Amino acid sequence: MTFAAIRPPLQRPRSATISGVCAALATHFGGSVRRVRFLAFLTTICGGAGLLMYFWLWALVPLAPSDTENRRDVRRSVPMAMLLVVASGISATIVVLINLGTGPRGSSPFLFVVALTSAAAVAWSLGVDRHDTSRSERYGAWVRSVAAGIIIACSLAVWALQPSFINSVFATAFMIAGVALLAAPRIVALWSDLITERTARVREEHRAEVAAHLHDSVLQTLALIQNRAGASSEIARIARAQERELREWLFEGDAAPTTDCVAEIRSIAAAIELDYPVRFDVVAVGETPDDAPVALVAAAREAMLNAARHAGGEVSVYVESSARTVDVFVRDRGPGVDLDTLPADRLGIRESIIGRMARAGGTGSVRHGTGGTGTEVHLRIEEQA
Amino acid sequence: MNDPQLLDVVIVDDHSIFRSGLRADLDATVQVVGEAATVDEAVELIARVRPTVVLLDVHLPGGAGGGGAEVLRRSSGLLESVRFLALSVSDAAEDVVGVIRAGARGYITKGSSGRDVSEAVAAVAGGDAVFSPKLAGFVLDAFGAVAGEQSESSEELDRLSTREREVMRYIARGYAYKEVAAELFISIKTVETHVSAVLRKLQLSSRHELTVWATARKLL
Fold first, then answer.
1. CA within 20 to 30 Å of A360's CA: A16, A66, A114, B183, which one?
2. How close does chain B come to A348, measured CA to CA in Å?
3. Model pLDDT for residues A216-254, shown as the tens digit of each residue
4. Which fold has domain A259-382?
């Protein structure tokens, strides 16, 4: 018989009975799970070594890598918390029966078991079941309430049946423990909130620090590059694109991307700048409408594209939105166009800008820039109301 | 401002690479007489050299952490003779409004070419205000000039006149002063007067929206 060249890794499965230790050992050594469990049980009753080994492996053997994003995604088939509660209930009954019959003598170990199992049930419910998707919130609440109830009831019973000094001390201690168990989920929740909040703050601080640094150094350098390379050169365009991306990352943060008219025009400008030696200066004034009129944005895109193709250089885009109207001006400093002398096949301006705006119930006009330089396209649309 | 005489300029910026770049880019009409990298250096240098124009970065280390606006406040005694032109990579409204209200005569972005900066320096030295299209857009927004709600205030400082509004709109559309003048059939000097008046309002107005706007939004 030959050894397998590579054993399966020692890792606990994500779908386990209790913790997956036995299954992990069985897979790793190639035996049956049942045999491993039997061995564990045997060594546990013979002095408890098996139990110690079990806990040790539980702590040290890693979980199998998760298929999903949720790193805590572990399912356990045995409702351990409920079993612990049941054990606690049985022990509590035994304690009460002993006290009813022979007196307090001999009930202390069972009292100890009651305390231990109830606490373990609550700990299991909070520490393990909370991350188990197959255990509901309600189930956890029930388990914890019952565990605390058992402790309190047991202590009251013992105190009522055998009202001695030592018993009242025990009863008080148990009451406190019971109340603590009931309050435990709140405390755990508060604690984890605190941790989450602190992590978020540290992250935010770190981000602010990085942002400040980038703002000071990288943005400056990018500005300088654009400056020195000339506004419409390839290098300046790349630097500008980088600057814009960085700026968005720095200032927008985690804010949801907006889809209003101005945001769309800005992204159009960014896209055109990548393809043509042109620089758009987009200025927006007023409250921008959320539902950007499609025709307006499309016509603005056409106008900007024309400016980029035929003029280049610096192009100003001005968007002014008031309660009822939206105006868009696209102004370039190129050679200018004359609508009358344009060949008929040049559909860009006539169709895509003027025609489109007219169909959408707005107006589009093209005119020479002041002093004979450049072109200005004016788009205007009014709210249909 | 048509004087062939050189304009003395101090560049205040914490990045030496940017200072040297700008210095090399500026026109022959401008003479750089000093450079400073921190708030304290800048205040000391400006008081000693007394340049015509200071090119002032909005973000500066040192001092009480107030950046360019702090330099302006600490040099407030010199504002009569020394003109400040704010330079920034940022278009954030807080930054722009902060330095303008602290006394800067204009604002341009660092992406501007050396020629643009030189022209702006000349304009500021001549007593004019320098408005970028973005700053003009900001003014229109801050004074509520578009929404038509500005008439509610009776305070002269808190509202723009019709002419001022028109001028601001043209500047926001990318028109140079000369083009604005031609468009409105007025002289360049009149345009400059309007712009200066708007600058003064921007500096002195206590209009509530101005501060709210500046903090609530970022000018991109």
1. B183
2. 22
3. 678 778 877 877 776 667 787 788 888 888 877 776 655
4. Heat Shock Protein 90 (3.30.565)
Which value does ipTM take for this structure? 0.77
**Chain A contacts in chain B segment 6-35 (CB below 8 A):** 14-15, 17-18, 21-22, 25
Contact A223 B140 (CB under 8 A): no
Nearest CB partner across the interface for B218, out of A215, A251, A315? A251
Residue A285: which of B201, B144, B198 has the closest Cα? B144
CA B197/CA B43 separation, integer angstroms: 27
3-state SS record for A206-246? HHHHHHHHHHHHHHHHHHHHHHHHCCCCHHHHHHHHHHHHH
**Which H or E element spans position B35?**
strand B30-36
Q: Do A285 and B172 touch (CB under 8 A)?
A: yes
Calpha distance B135→B81 (Å, rounded): 24
What is the Cα–Cα distance from A384 to B21, expressed in whole angstroms?
52
Asked whether the beta carbons of B95 and B107 are under 8 A apart, the reply is: no
Cut 0.80: pTM above it: no
Among candidates B17, B92, B141 on the partner chain, residue whose Cβ is nearest the Cβ of A221: B17
* Closest-CA residue to A21 (of A43, A3, A6): A43
Query: Nearest 5°: CA angle at A353, between A329 and B166?
Result: 20
What is the domain partition of chain B in residue ranges?
Answer: 7-128, 135-216
pLDDT in tens, B107-133: 887 777 778 888 888 888 888 888 888
The pLDDT-based confidence of B3 (bands split at 50, 70, 90) is very low
Largest pairwise CA distance in chain A? 116
**Chain A, 224-253: which have a CB under 8 Å from a chain B CB?**
224, 226-228, 230-231, 240, 247, 251
* CATH code for the domain defined by B135-216: 1.10.10.10
**Which H/E stretch holds residue A87?**
helix A80-101
Instruction: Tell me which residue has tokens 């720095």.
Output: A250
Report yes or no: A383 at the B interface, CB cutoff 8 Å.
no
Q: What is the second-level CATH architecture of the domain B7-128?
A: 3-Layer(aba) Sandwich (3.40)
Q: Which long-range contacts (CB under 8 A, 24 or more apart) does B216-220 make?
A: B217/B93, B218/A251, B218/B91, B218/B92, B218/B93, B218/B94, B219/B91, B219/B92, B219/B93, B219/B96, B219/B134, B219/B137, B219/B138, B220/A247, B220/A251, B220/A266, B220/B91
The total of other beta-carbon atoms located within 10 Å of residue B126's CB is 14
Helix (H) or strand (E) holding A359: helix A356-359
Q: Where are the domains of chain A?
A: 1-78, 86-198, 259-382
Average pLDDT over residues A175-181: 80
Q: Is A378 on the interface with B (CB under 8 A)?
A: no
